[in-house]
UniProtKB/TrEMBL annotation, chain A:
One of its GO terms (molecular function) is iron ion binding. SUPFAM superfamilies: CO dehydrogenase molybdoprotein N-domain-like, Molybdenum cofactor-binding domain. Residues 22-128 form the Aldehyde oxidase/xanthine dehydrogenase a/b hammerhead domain. It comes from Trichlorobacter thiogenes. The lineage of its organism: Bacteria, Pseudomonadati, Thermodesulfobacteriota, Desulfuromonadia, Geobacterales. This is Xanthine dehydrogenase, molybdenum binding subunit apoprotein.
TrEMBL record, chain B:
SUPFAM superfamilies: 2Fe-2S ferredoxin-like, CO dehydrogenase ISP C-domain like. PANTHER family: OXIDOREDUCTASE WITH IRON-SULFUR SUBUNIT, XANTHINE DEHYDROGENASE IRON-SULFUR-BINDING SUBUNIT XDHC-RELATED. This is Purine hydroxylase delta subunit apoprotein. Residues 1-77 form the 2Fe-2S ferredoxin-type domain. Keywords: 2Fe-2S, Iron, Iron-sulfur, Metal-binding, Oxidoreductase. The lineage of its organism: Bacteria, Pseudomonadati, Thermodesulfobacteriota, Desulfuromonadia, Geobacterales. The keyword Secreted does not apply. Pfam families: Fer2, Fer2_2. GO terms for molecular function: 2 iron, 2 sulfur cluster binding; metal ion binding; oxidoreductase activity.
Length: 761, 155
């Protein structure tokens, strides 16, 4: 029995930690239903081509092969996509990237599946592919999607103040061009799930997903199964980071189930398939121009951002738009012009990933801030503090900030830290052949879906007949710990210990649509709904206890672990007894919440579809101390400090987990992660070629919560910080390299080769 | 072929192809899904088990190699003081996020604990350098192992 009290503001161990540490937590990848079939997709080895024929005869005739399906077997739209439905479940005419699925094989065993997949005969007519932004944007470029002229998924702009005219009054102007690489989510549990068709024709699927409720619509649209007959169960994810937001295996699995005569079908992508066919972070090219007055007051910004979205849309347009909304950093800039292009190519599909378009722009902008500071001869921290947004300011997109805005507090706390105070001493103590540098980055990241999208949740909590509480979580836990936060929220309100509050992971049959696990909105939105539901349940319990104990009102009545106690009389009634008195429907409470939206949308944005503007932001101030090896160009990150404004911290331990994890992923992005595609072919299909940080690559990461104000709209004053930490490392590291060697590196990641080339000029 | 070995102290007999991957044998045939497969090519460490006390990657081993060995998986952690100390430390120090790397991390850590020597953070990081984690940044994982080392190696 875990009898520790669940209290907001304490580092209570996560509710899932014991099962995960014991190896008993069951992930989608752990499911091997008795007698299940194995499904696998046959994928294109061409990046761009027309399908001449797909001959399945030989494959279908092999022993152990049960079915070989092609697009002809898909009865509905055969198109998936969260907003823009342009991605075939199985290609029907063209292939658009190396990895596009062409056939789906069902087999009795893994071995038979491999044989069957190898035996499918593909005939493709190669077409010229477009593998970079310039060729895709060329006037005579062939169209990757016929209905998308110019190969543009989206083109948009934000213009604030007098736009480019703002440069006229600037005393100092700096310019820079930057690029960032493709990044893979590299979650350790690859895309996986099991499914079967039920007797009533409905589809049951247990799958590693960030969006179980939305998956029903995607599957329904693509495969023609009525969405009301689709049940998605979503156990804990072995990592997500955005890469499991939207259909991965879902539609393929659903299609397989439609042809499996009611048998279970299992699909799991291997690592190579995950790297090739899974979604990625957009590569980005940026051009920046920033102007300021002589005293360092920012005046004008011109930013141009090009995002390579690959073969299909996924959330590419929305990624670009969020990047644009953040392109000016957490600063006051009266005049801005921010332009964005989201471009189709024949590269693997890019989509959602932690810090969704923002970490690219942050690299550009925070590099520019250091360039500007150098030109002004100003301290880079002073420059940031001078221009930091405060509540009531307009951000770079023209949105007036009405919620908690803690960037200044973050910077001030960083300023007080010994890493900053003692920086010159530390740098001077550099060992032989090493140069030490210190780099800063101010970061922010919106929370919530943004304008035009309903960011809502419906929470459900029940008192069980055993006298415990059960939360029906509806937003999956990909590891960020939202379900533990929900246990803490409900336990706190109900004054229960950890043994008496349980949680069921999402099941579309027993929980209610609450959006995806994404966008820094998971704990925020569902948490608010859960507070409402839990408060109502508490009121019902007190009312029942009052009736049973013959009390005229609730005075002196309090919930305690397992019981309601009347303090003055010391009379009590157990929760088990109360559960027995209450009707089943009375033991269940629902609560709804809709996140706040901007009521006065600034007329600054053009070409945006949805998701503009955002009203709540998490903020952070980051500092890195590193050493550059002058002989090899190798960077050693010695220390990392992140001060983060997430409003009120519900669980300091879990807060640090998110910050440290985000920083580590950001350091991978800064130092080594370089998903390489040549002529559409992935050159980094495994962990030997696509390097992510190991334990020796990551320094001690110090996470400090900003002593700022709570976010009044959030559950107990919190706001989401799952993404913001990802934004800091790349610009901070680049700024530290510049500080150490005087060399400005503008292309990520900052590999030893690039650093050495920079140092040698 | 028939393969005999001790699995988490239980004499075990398996009838399977000699070239069946140990990770498949454990997860699919024996139902021990605690060991995870993250890459299948020996690069991530999620499938780390102990074979005769030595950390091995179950995705790179074949069933025949288990003949006559002592195999330990995450499922055996609760059987020993060191294993329990590790699990508690991982849970309480906040080392667990998505948790998918954790069984492998713990088995690599168990091998470190058995050296019964005090280990500093650098040595712990070195000992875990074959195990990838995408969630935590390793800081709290090292905290957890450091705590378990202190508890188990009271020298």
């Amino acid at each position: 029995m875990n009898a520790s009290a669940l209290k907001i503001g304490t580092s209570h161990p996560r509710g899932d930690a014991v099962a995960k540490a014991a190896g008993t937590e069951r992930y989608a990848a752990d499911l091997y239903p008795q007698g299940c079939l194995w499904a696998g997709a046959v994928r294109s080895h061409q990046a761009c081509g027309r399908i001449i024929s797909i001959d399945t005869t030989a494959a279908a005739a092999l022993p152990g092969v049960v079915k070989v399906l092609t697009a002809a077997d898909v009865v509905a739209s055969n198109r998936q996509g969260i907003i823009h439905k342009d991605m075939p479940v199985l290609c029907d005419d063209l292939v658009r990237y190396c990895g596009d699925p062409l056939a789906l094989v069902l087999a009795e065993t893994k071995e038979a599946l491999q044989r069957g997949m190898s035996a499918v005969q593909l005939q493709l007519e190669p077409l010229p592919g477009l593998f970079d932004l310039d060729s895709a944007l060329a006037a005579d470029a062939p169209l990757i999607h016929e209905d998308k002229p110019g190969n543009l998924l989206a083109q948009a702009s934000i213009c604030k103040g007098t736009g480019l005219d703002g440069f006229d009054a600037c005393s100092v102007v700096v310019e820079g061009s930057f690029s960032t690489p493709v990044q893979a989510h590299a979650f350790l549990e690859t895309e996986s799930g099991v499914a079967r068709l039920e007797e009533d024709g409905g589809l049951l699927m247990e799958v590693s997903t960030q969006s179980p409720f939305r998956d029903r619509f995607e599957i329904s649209h693509a495969l023609g199964i009525p969405w009301g007959k689709i049940r998605i169960v979503a156990p804990s994810l072995g990592g997500g980071f955005g890469g499991k937001d939207g259909a991965t295996v879902q539609c393929l699995l659903g299609l397989a189930a439609q042809h499996a005569d009611g048998r279970w079908v299992r699909m799991q992508w291997d690592r190579e398939e995950s790297f090739k066919a899974g979604y990625k972070r957009h590569a980005c090219r940026m051009e920046y121009k920033l102007g300021a007055a002589a005293d360092g007051t920012l005046q004008a910004l011109h930013a141009k951002l090009w995002y390579d979205t690959g073969a299909y849309a996924h959330l590419g347009a929305e990624v670009m738009e969020l990047g644009m909304e953040h392109a000016g950093g957490p600063y006051r800039i009266p005049h801005t012009l921010i332009e964005g292009w989201c471009v189709y190519t024949n590269n693997p599909t890019a989509g959602a990933m932690r810090a969704f378009g923002v970490c690219q722009a942050t690299f550009g902008f925070e590099s520019m801030m250091d360039l500007l500071a150098a030109k002004l001869g100003m301290d880079p921290l002073e420059l940031r503090l001078k221009n930091a947004l405060v509540r009531g300011d307009e951000n770079c997109a023209g949105m007036r900030l009405t919620t908690s805005t803690g960037i200044k507090t973050c910077l001030e706390q960083l300023q007080q830290h010994p890493f900053w105070q003692d920086r010159e001493v530390w740098k001077a103590a550099s060992p032989a052949y090493k140069k030490r540098g210190i780099g800063l980055a101010s970061v922010f990241n919106a929370a919530g879906y943004g304008g035009g999208v309903r960011d809502a949740a419906t929470a459900k909590i029940e008192l069980t007949p055993e006298g415990t509480f059960l939360i029906h979580n509806a937003v999956t836990d990909m590891g960020q710990g939202n379900s533990s936060a929900f246990l803490q929220i409900a336990g706190h309100i109900l004054s229960q210990d950890a043994s008496r509050v349980l949680l069921k992971q999402p099941d579309t049959r027993t929980a209610y649509p609450s959006g995806s696990s994404s966008a820094g909105r998971t704990t925020y939105t569902f948490g608010k709904a859960l507070i409402t539901a839990t408060e109502e349940l508490k009121a019902r319990l007190l009312n029942w206890a009052g009736m049973i104990l013959f009390l005229q009102d609730n005075d002196g009545l309090e919930l305690q672990p397992g019981r309601v106690l009347h303090q003055p009389s010391q009379k009590e009634v157990s929760l088990v007894a109360l559960a027995g008195y209450m009707q089943p429907e009375e033991r269940v409470c629902l609560g709804q919440y809709v996140a706040p939206t901007c009521k006065e949308v600034p007329p600054t944005a053009k070409g945006f579809f949805i998701g503009f503007p955002h009203v709540i932001f998490g903020y952070g101030a980051h500092l890195v101390r590193l050493e550059v090896d002058s002989l090899t160009g190798q960077l050693t990150v010695c220390d990392y400090l992140a001060v983060t404004d997430g409003g009120r911290v519900l669980n300091p331990g879990m807060f640090d987990q998110q910050v440290q994890g985000g920083v580590a992923q950001g350091l991978g992005y800064a130092l080594m992660e370089d998903f390489t595609v040549r002529d559409g072919v992935v050159k980094t299909p495994d962990f030997a070629t696509y390097l992510i940080p190991g334990s020796l690559d990551i320094p001690e990461i110090i996470s400090i919560a900003a002593q700022g104000e709570p976010e009044e709209t959030g559950p107990f004053g919190m706001k989401g910080i799952g993404e913001v930490a990802m934004n800091g490392p790349l610009p901070a590291v680049a700024n530290a390299v510049a500080d150490a060697c005087g060399v400005r590196l503008c292309h990520g990641p900052l590999t030893p080769q690039r650093v050495l080339a920079g140092v040698k000029g | 072929m028939t393969i005999r070995f001790n699995l988490n102290s239980i004499p075990t007999e398996c009838d399977c192809p000699s070239d069946r991957r140990v990770i498949d044998l454990l997860r699919e045939d024996l139902g021990l899904t605690g060991s995870k497969e993250g890459c299948g090519t020996g690069e991530c460490g999620a499938c780390t088990i102990l074979v005769d006390g030595v950390p091995k990657l179950a995705c790179l081993m074949l069933a025949a190699q288990l003949e006559g060995t002592q195999v330990e998986t995450v499922e055996a952690l609760q059987q020993t003081d060191q294993g329990r100390a590790l699990m508690t430390a991982f849970a309480e120090e906040g080392a667990v996020q998505c948790g998918y790397c954790i069984p492998g991390m713990e088995m690599a850590s168990l091998a470190l604990l058995r050296q019964e020597e005090p280990l500093n953070r650098e040595q712990i990081k070195e000992g875990l350098s074959g195990n990838l984690c995408r969630c935590t940044g390793y800081v709290k994982i090292v905290d957890a192992v450091e705590r378990a080392v202190q508890e188990c190696c009271k020298i």
